[in-house]
Amino acid sequence: MKIAVERAYGEAVEGEAVVSEEGFSPRYDLDRWSGTITKPGHKLEGTSLRDKICFFPTAKGGIAAGWAFYDIKWKKIAPKAFIFGVTNPVMVQGAVFAGITITEGWSPQPQGLVRTRDWVRVDPAAKLVEVMRRRQ
Amino acid sequence: MRLSAEERAILAGERGEAARRALEYQVKVGEFWGAERFVPVTNVHMMGDIEVMGDGGLAWLKDTAGLGARCAVATTTNARCFDFAHCAKLGQDAGEAAKERELIATLRRMDVVTTDTCINYQTVYQPHLGEHVAWGDTGTVIYANSVFGARSNFESGPAALAAAVTGRTPEYGFHLDEHRKGSFAVELRATLDDLADWGAVGKLVGEPHQSYFSVPVFHGYRRSPSADELKHLGAALASYGSMGMFHFVGVTPEAPSLEAALGGRASPERVVITDADIDRVYASYGLGGGDARLVVFSGPQQSLFEMKQLAALFEGRKVQDGTQCFVTTNGAVLAQARSLGYAGALEAAGVTILEGVCFYILQNLSAMRAANGWKNLVSNSAKIVNIIGAHRFNTILRRTRDCVDIACSGALR
Predict the structure, then answer these.
(1) Is the pTM of the predicted complex or chain greater than 0.90?
(2) Do B159 and A67 touch (CB under 8 A)?
(3) ipTM above 0.85?
(4) A41: which residues sit within 8 A by CB, 6+ positions away?
């Protein structure tokens, strides 16, 4: 199963998927000391993003991502990639600064096609995201 | 991207390694967004504090300063995470405070003017129509684009600093005419007599239209809104909707009419905001066990007129024992508020005024919440009610007068 993305930056990476129905902000949602979503009521509350390939439909907020992505990469709790439906400049500025792979725009939509804990590969040069293995 | 001779020279290292790295980084960001060229900027406003930067960010900043990075244009800083006069009382970490001082010194070495404010647009610099700037936080950007008609994208700390060093930013997003037209119309039939009401509008419009490039056009309102009202509207739109611009017909410079603001297109939907909608926002917050021990006026920092209003509302009253009430503002406003007696009135009522910070950015906030046993956070700022979630507060939006009543009675309603 392959998903085409519109814009992409970074190195090709593979990892376990986390698929969110909700948008993302490192300031609003993420505990930047553990790498876990801690916002009460967030559908991914309690989920660690460390080394994950994170699918988010939208970006929320916020200027913080610029430094925050670098900070969580420094702490070795960063995701391997962000796959956004629609993102904002800050997420891109932050990911590029931290050296985290990032993409925007998807066809088809991953919700329902990619499941959390599937193993996926992101290839920014080819503008493709591919499910390599389904979760057991 | 098409680069000018000057930009090619920067990439060749003719303005030093720091400028070369900054431009190289900007090219990568610009290419992601399909920018064709750079535009010069006249002013930069950047976020940089130890809470969000961490040790890695501080190390990077010191390295960059060591490479000779210096601002090519006037550059100011956003609110930070310590008011050093209060950090011990708040239980903040002395080691982190020392790092914050080191960070501030490093920024100053790079010729950054450390204003520590998220209301630079009210107190420091007001760009003109069409002026290209590179600003963050989001509240500053949406105000610049919308109210001044200036042009900025959300610029994160590293991106803003890169713009400060190179004096330019990639031309994409709100620097381009094509992204500045309204996406949909919002008729404002609600009364909107309190700043929190304006934040509630931002929540109602932002949440269901979450997109950076979505530009609402407000129309039909009964009077001309004030700068503080537009500030709370913009901050909430940026927070709930990640939006970078709005129009307000007859108020903002690129909206002489609804038709002009929409670029001649019809609005794809009809959104109307009434008093009943605003009331539903206030009714939507769970009160938990009724904890009313934390009331905050912050996010954005308070203007002089907000300080004046709060001083009048707290006059002759006292914050209830066991409840803490915080107001945050910048140094310039605080100095005037002191000379005018507003700060004294607030402090006499038991309000803690923090300078140069925003409450949600405070270092050690999660531990502070736990140490104080705070469950609920009550505020008249729709932005802070939204943004502080990762610290696990239950947040409640209330009108300004109600917030003061809650602070002085210790009773939540």
Answers:
(1) yes
(2) no
(3) yes
(4) none
